[in-house]
């Protein structure tokens, strides 16, 4: 950890969350109040990665991204392995990565955290050469994201598009046939440092399965309680793989309910484990996937590697 003053560039995706045309001024005012002089640059979402790399070339040692997880992920991929440090203003809808880092959701408080400049290094996941901060998945969720994206392109609002996409995916429920291989270092049963199985599993962590989804998280996710979907650490050096081999449509519904009210890992058929590397082979040419909430199509097989502590990020 370190505290330092750096030249700061802020890349603002003003379309993230519920921001409006006054977002640039709001961001500038927040940093001014925090005692920091920043260069705020409104940026289209598709240009975030290129603008982040350009900021480093111009000499910025701190590149702040104001937006949601997709925007942050694109910038993080551009900054990974460089001397630049990522700052986050969580202006998106869910802001999972910022929450897991403890970044305040209030704009002014987040600006003060960045101005203080306390940095740490965290892991990123990599699949077929693409870096991600949160997770990647195939199956139901990936199809939902693809459907939602298509609906948003024709003018549907995000949450309406999400709901309609969920209905379509549910109606077309199907399981993906995939072979899962893990790297060396995966532990056996029980909760050990080397990678443990969660309770309620059927005992299959590797091999061929038919599952409605495979979720691969960058570090371990909470599976129950109020902290569902949160991560206690982002530098553990392991993936968290979740799936549901053979689970029926009704079983998936029960799992969704359990996710809201109980412990997902108690559902019969749900499996999860941690591993330092993972390969998913669906025996097809290309595979629809979701990476940090963005729909993509990748060449099969999908090969996952952890990039340990590759990203420097400002935290409270």
What topology does this entry show?
Elements: E1 8-12, H1 23-33, E2 38-42, H2 48-57, E3 62-67, H3 69-79, E4 85-90, H4 96-101, H5 107-116, E5 119-127, E6 130-132, E7 135-139, H6 140-153, H7 158-171, E8 176-182, E9 207-211, E10 213-218, E11 239-243, H8 249-261, E12 271-275, E13 277-281, E14 286-291, E15 294-299, E16 302-314
Parallel strand pairs: 1-2, 1-3, 3-4
Antiparallel strand pairs: 5-6, 5-16, 7-10, 7-14, 8-9, 8-13, 10-11, 11-12, 13-16, 14-15
Count, helices: 8
Residue runs with pLDDT of under 50 for 5 or more positions: 1-5, 185-205
N→C terminal distance? 11 Å
Order of helices and strands: EHEHEHEHHEEEHHEEEEHEEEEE
Provide the gyration radius in Å: 20 Å
CATH class of the largest domain: Mainly Beta
Overall number of structural domains: 2
The largest pleated sheet is described as: 6 strands, antiparallel
Q: How does this structure look, described?
A:
This protein has 316 residues and is an alpha+beta fold. It has two domains: 110 residues, Probable inorganic polyphosphate/atp-NAD kinase, domain 1 (Rossmann fold, 3-Layer(aba) Sandwich); 178 residues, Tumour Suppressor Smad4 (Sandwich), CATH 2.60.200.40. It contains eight helices and 16 strands. The strands form three sheets. It has a six-stranded antiparallel beta sheet with strand order 6-5-16-13-8-9, covered by helices on one side. A six-stranded antiparallel beta sheet has the order 12-11-10-7-14-15. A hairpin with a 2-residue loop joins strand 5 and strand 6. The termini are close together. The N terminus is likely disordered.
């Amino acid at each position: 950890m370190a505290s330092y003053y750096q030249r700061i560039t802020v890349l603002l995706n003003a379309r993230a969350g519920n921001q409006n045309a006054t977002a640039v001024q709001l961001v500038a005012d927040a940093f001014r109040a925090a005692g920091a002089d920043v260069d705020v640059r409104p940026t289209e979402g598709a240009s975030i990665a290129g603008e982040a790399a350009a900021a480093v070339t111009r000499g910025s040692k701190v590149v702040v991204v104001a937006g949601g997880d997709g925007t942050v992920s694109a910038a993080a991929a551009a900054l990974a392995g460089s001397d630049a440090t990522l700052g986050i203003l969580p202006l998106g809808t869910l802001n999972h990565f910022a929450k897991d880092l403890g970044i305040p959701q209030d704009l002014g408080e987040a600006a003060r955290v960045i101005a203080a400049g306390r940095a740490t290094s965290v892991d990123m996941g990599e699949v077929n050469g693409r870096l991600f901060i949160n997770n990647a998945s195939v199956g139901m969720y990936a199809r939902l994201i693809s459907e939602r994206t298509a609906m948003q392109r024709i003018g549907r609002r995000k949450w309406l598009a999400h709901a309609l996409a969920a209905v379509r995916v549910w109606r077309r429920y199907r399981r993906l046939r995939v072979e899962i291989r893990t790297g060396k270092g995966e532990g056996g049963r029980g909760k050990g440092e080397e990678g443990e199985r969660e309770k309620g599993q059927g005992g299959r962590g590797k091999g061929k399965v038919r599952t409605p989804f495979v979720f691969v998280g960058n570090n371990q996710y909470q599976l129950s309680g109020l902290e569902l979907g949160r991560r206690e650490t982002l530098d553990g050096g392991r993936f968290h793989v979740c799936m549901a081999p053979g689970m029926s449509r009704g079983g998936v519904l029960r799992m969704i309910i359990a996710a809201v009210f109980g412990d997902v890992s108690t559902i019969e058929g749900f499996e999860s484990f941690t591993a330092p590397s993972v390969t998913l082979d669906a025996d097809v040419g290309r595979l629809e996937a979701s990476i940090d909430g963005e729909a993509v199509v990748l060449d099969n097989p999908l090969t996952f590697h952890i990039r340990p502590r590759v990203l420097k990020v400002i935290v409270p």
